[in-house]
Design goal:
423 residues, Aminopeptidase, Nonspecific Lipid-transfer Protein, Chain A, seven-stranded mixed beta sheet, 11 helices, 19 strands, globular, binds coenzyme A
Length: 423
């Protein structure tokens, strides 16, 4: 077999790209799914593929995102433009021959050439991307709440019930209202990305084929006293047969964004009080979702899974470390090595302060504080994992006593990083 190499794809190769992606994930494309993938995932500036004798056998794409980053105390969250790697697949006939490895190398060159400081992705299997320098940067919690005994305890410091009202709205109205609320709310948590028009169009379309027999997506929006939307949730009803006569009725909560704690509480109250619904199933929420602390009987909320969501790779270590804010003022000399780096081990000097971070190459006389792999730097980058946890796991070395305490404080994030957008 002649050597197979990745190359960029042209606009008219979008349908072939969509068909190959679906085959890689075990489904057969239809006109509708091809149109949806081309509209939402195929960016001809970034899409790449590998051909074998005229057949497209491997694909990868990128959606550029604006990614919210941890801030210095009291400052607004900064953000960085990140390459969102997506549609990665190799046909079953061509696996384990190095095609993914070649595509990852091709993309890395693209990122560096186009000065993307960071690349992010969500992984179908968590064993795939560490070898390419991606670290597990955000985790989300899957929750189940039994609604019957879900009353709130006293919440003395929550503002009184916000003046305003809750409205259940259709998708046409949601299209006008909901993206604006999301755009504002997502800026308050590291890890959140923007949702472009095509992504919103796909989410709002809610085609039957994506429902797996569940109800249609519904929206509830909260409006403040002046009628301005300041929070929303999307959810769908689910019915499952339990024996011949009993149907279990649950609701899946897909999105919940609020501009204040009071509106957040009101949205949960609405969802927990929907008549007939016995259980709320919430596939992904931030690890520090406050609902547990609001319930009179917190055991009614069960965390049924904690799953990796965003994987992050610092493509340009200096630019990426310089882009985020830090929780403490310090100086750290960091040696970064391991898979995914282009030039082997490199040492950087990071200085953090109230104005952010600045990062340069370390000088030869400067003593190393931390030694870690590029993927490990990705894992601590958004504040989802403490450097001291990686040290305890045997993945990070403290070169100087006290360095870990300083690194924990600097890399911390008051809010757990979370990404509520699947891509
Ligand atoms: C995952 C996938 C893209 C891998 O492609 P591939 O061309 O077979 O990968 P490569 O041959 O380049 O493998 C590179 C290395 O990763 C390892 N690897 C590949 N897929 C792996 C997996 N699913 N789990 C663990 N390791 C994996 C290989 O064993 C190889 O290891 P080595 O370097 O030690 O030999 C391919 O199996 C696929 O399309 N799977 C279904 C769709 C999917 O899951 N896509 C990823 C979306 S996030």
């Amino acid at each position: 077999m002649s050597e197979l190499k990745p190359r960029r794809l042209a606009r008219d190769e979008g349908p072939a790209f969509a068909k190959t992606v679906e085959l890689c994930f075990g489904t057969v494309a239809t006109q509708d799914t091809i149109a949806a993938t081309v509209a939402q995932e195929f960016d001809e500036d970034w899409a790449i593929g590998v051909y074998d004798s005229g057949d497209l056998v491997a694909t990868a794409g990128v959606t550029p995102f604006d990614l919210a980053l941890p801030a210095a105390p009291g400052s607004p969250l900064p953000s960085v433009r990140a390459a969102g790697v997506t549609c990665v697949g190799v046909l079953p006939t061509h696996r384990r021959r190095g095609l993914l490895t070649k595509m990852m190398g091709f993309q890395y060159a693209q990122f560096r050439e186009r000065e993307m400081a960071l690349a992010i992705l969500t992984a179908s299997e968590s064993s795939i991307y560490g070898r390419f320098g991606y670290g597990l940067a955000t985790t989300h919690a899957s929750l189940e709440v039994a609604t019957k005994r879900s009353g709130f305890r006293e919440l003395p410091h929550l503002e009184a019930e916000p003046a305003g009202k809750m409205r259940v709205i259709g998708k046409e109205e949601a299209a006008k209202v909901v993206p604006g609320v999301h755009a504002e709310a997502r800026r308050s948590r590291p890890g959140e990305v923007d949702r472009g028009e095509a992504r919103w169009a796909g989410m709002l379309e809610d085609p039957e084929r994506d429902r797996h027999g569940d109800g249609a997506r519904m929206f509830v929006v909260h409006e403040d006293a002046s009628g301005s939307p300041d929070g929303y949730a999307s959810f769908r009803h689910v019915w499952s047969r339990e024996g011949a006569w009993k149907v279990r009725h649950a609701a899946i909560v897909e999105d919940l964004y609020a501009l204040s704690p009071a509106v957040h509480a009101n949205l949960w109250r609405f969802l927990l009080d929907i008549d007939l619904v016995e259980e709320l199933s919430v596939p992904d929420r931030p690890m520090d979702e406050p609902l547990r602390w609001m319930l009179a009987d917190p055991r009614q909320l069960r965390t049924v899974a904690a799953r990796d969501m965003l994987w992050a790779k610092l493509v340009d270590v200096r630019a990426a470390l310089g882009a985020r804010g830090y929780g403490a003022e310090t100086q750290l000399v960091i040696e970064v090595n391991g898979p995914g780096t282009s030039e082997g081990a490199e040492r950087y000097c990071l200085e953090t302060g109230p104005g952010g971070g600045s990062c340069r190459r370390a000088r030869s006389g400067e003593r190393t504080d931390l030694v870690l792999g590029l993927a490990d730097l990705g894992a601590i980058y958004l504040g989802g994992c403490k450097p001291s946890v990686l040290a305890c796991a045997g993945r990070l070395h403290e070169g100087r006593p006290g360095a870990l305490v300083r690194a924990d404080a600097a890399f911390s994030s008051p809010l757990a990083p979370y990404c509520g957008t699947h891509f």
